[in-house]
Write a structure and sequence with these properties.
The chain is an alpha/beta fold and 397 residues long. It contains 12 helices and 21 strands. It binds MU-OXO-diiron.
C-alpha cells in the first residue's frame, strides 16, 4: 500500500507483519516491523532509502504506483544496513542514471555491500544541501546512530526529518502515524529499540540531538525508517530520546534468576520481600523463559540489577550467559547490583556473577548470598537483607 503523507511526499515502504527476529536472531521483534521508504515528487524525483531485499517486488510495485522509476534522479541512502539498502540494486537497475547520495561512511559501506555496482555516488557532509525543485534536501551526518554511515535527511518546505533508524520502532501497524496507534505499545517498542540498539551510543545520541536542536529547523514530522511516523507532537520522541540517553533509571529493581529445583527462585522471592520492605518496586524475571531483548530493556530501564543462579559446572546457568554478555557490551550506566544463588557442592555461581557485574561496571551494594541445597530460614533472612540493602541504595541515589 502507498500513502501520501503530505502533498508530494509518499510512503512507499513495506510492513513486515511476520518478522519475529531481526539482525539474524540477535533481536526479537514480537510486533513485526516495517521498512519505510519515502518518495518525494518534486522537479527532481527523490527516493529516500529502500527496503529489505525479500520485499523488493512489493516495494518496486509501490514506487510504480506513484512514478515511473526511471524518473528517479536521487536515491538517498541514509544507512547501508540491508534492511534499508536491500532493494537498492533493483531500483538502480530501473533508474541507472540516478545519483546515490551517501555520507562519507556510506561511500565505503554501500559499494562494499553491493560489490560490482557502478552507481554514481555523491558524498554529502553535515550542512550540505541538494535542490530538488520547490524544496531542498539538507543532510546531517549521524555517525554511530547506529552505524558509522548513518545520516539524517531533512526536507525543507515540508519540514520533514527522515532520520533513518533513529526514533524508529520494530512495530508493524495498519496505520502509519503515531496518533493512529496504541501509545503504550508504541512506546514499549520505541524504548526496546533504544535500549537494544542505541543505548551503547547514548553520548552520541545526546550530542546529535543537541546539534539538531541548535539548527533550529522547524519539524512538522519525523519519519523514521521503521515503525510508525511521528506526526502528532513529533518533538515528543526527541524528548524521550534525550531522557533515555541520559540513562537515569527508574528507582526499582530487576531480580533476574534461573533455577533448577526452586531453591534460587525461593531466594529471589525473599529478596523481593526485602525490596518491598523498603518500599521499592521490583520485577522477577526467570531468565530461562524470558526473551533476552525484553530482559535487556527492563535492565536498561531499572536502577537495581540483582542476579541469581544455582551453581552448575563451577559457573552460573547457561540461560544467563547471553544476557550477561550483552549487558557488558551495552555499558548501561547508573546501575547498582548484587548476586545470589544456591549450590550443592562447589558453589562458584555467586562469585562469578559478582565478578561479571563488576566487569559491567555495576557496583555491588550488598554482600551476595549463597544457600546450600534448599535455603534455610537464615539464608532467606539474608536474602531479605540483600533486598533491603539494594532497596535502600536505590532510594538513596
Ligand atoms: Fe534499520 Fe540499522 O538498520
Amino acid at each position: 500500500m502507498v500513502q501520501e503523507l503530505v502533498k508530494g511526499v509518499y510512503w512507499v515502504g513495506v510492513v513486515d507483519w511476520g518478522l519475529k527476529h531481526f539482525h539474524g536472531f540477535e533481536l526479537s521483534t514480537h510486533r513485526g516491523s516495517s521498512y519505510n521508504s519515502y518518495l518525494i515528487m518534486d522537479e527532481h524525483v527523490t527516493l529516500v532509502d529502500t527496503v529489505w531485499a525479500p520485499f523488493t517486488d512489493q516495494f518496486v510495485e509501490n514506487v510504480r504506483k506513484v512514478v515511473d522509476p526511471s524518473k528517479i534522479e536521487y536515491v538517498i541512502a541514509n544507512h547501508s544496513e540491508p534492511d534499508h539498502s536491500g532493494a537498492l540494486p533493483a531500483i538502480m537497475r530501473l533508474c541507472p542514471n540516478a545519483t546515490v547520495v551517501v555520507s562519507k561512511g556510506g561511500a565505503e559501506s554501500i559499494p562494499s555491500y553491493y560489490r560490482g555496482s557502478s552507481w554514481k555516488l555523491k558524498v554529502v557532509r553535515t550542512g550540505d544541501r541538494i535542490n530538488i525543485g520547490s524544496s531542498e534536501l539538507l543532510f546531517v551526518e549521524a555517525p554511530m546512530l547506529h552505524w558509522p554511515d548513518s545520516m539524517f535527511t531533512y526536507l525543507t518546505g515540508k519540514n520533514i526529518l527522515m532520520p533513518n533508524d533513529a526514533f524508529g520502532q520494530h512495530y508493524a501497524t495498519a496505520s502509519r502515524f503515531n496518533d493512529e496507534v496504541d501509545t503504550d505499545e508504541l512506546y514499549q517498542e520505541a524504548i526496546k529499540y533504544f535500549a537494544n540498539i542505541l543505548a551503547p551510543f547514548s553520548t552520541a545520541v545526546t550530542r546529535k540531538i543537541d546539534e539538531l536542536l541548535a539548527l533550529n529547523l522547524p519539524i512538522n514530522m519525523i519519519l523514521p525508517s521503521h515503525g510508525v511516523l511521528w506526526r502528532k507532537d513529533p518533538a515528543q520522541i526527541v524528548k524521550a530520546y534525550k531522557k533515555w540517553a541520559e540513562q537515569v533509571p527508574e528507582k526499582a529493581a530487576i531480580i533476574l534468576y534461573d533455577t533448577m529445583w526452586n531453591a534460587t527462585r525461593t531466594m529471589a522471592e525473599a529478596i523481593g520481600e526485602g525490596l518491598s520492605a523498603e518500599g521499592v518496586g521490583y520485577k522477577l524475571l526467570y531468565a530461562a523463559l524470558s526473551d533476552r531483548n525484553d530482559v535487556l530493556t527492563e535492565l536498561f530501564k531499572t536502577k537495581g540489577i540483582i542476579i541469581g543462579s544455582p551453581t552448575i559446572n563451577k559457573g552460573y546457568m547457561p540461560s544467563l550467559a547471553p544476557i550477561l554478555e550483552e549487558l557488558k557490551g551495552m555499558g548501561f550506566k547508573n546501575k547498582i547490583g548484587a548476586a545470589f544463588g544456591s549450590y550443592g557442592w562447589s558453589g562458584e555461581s555467586v562469585k562469578n556473577l559478582e565478578e561479571h557485574l563488576t566487569r559491567c561496571k555495576i557496583p555491588l551494594v550488598s554482600a551476595g548470598v549463597k544457600a546450600k541445597w534448599q535455603p534455610t530460614q537464615e539464608d532467606l533472612e539474608n536474602c531479605r537483607r540483600v533486598g533491603r540493602e539494594v532497596g535502600a541504595a536505590i532510594k538513596a541515589d
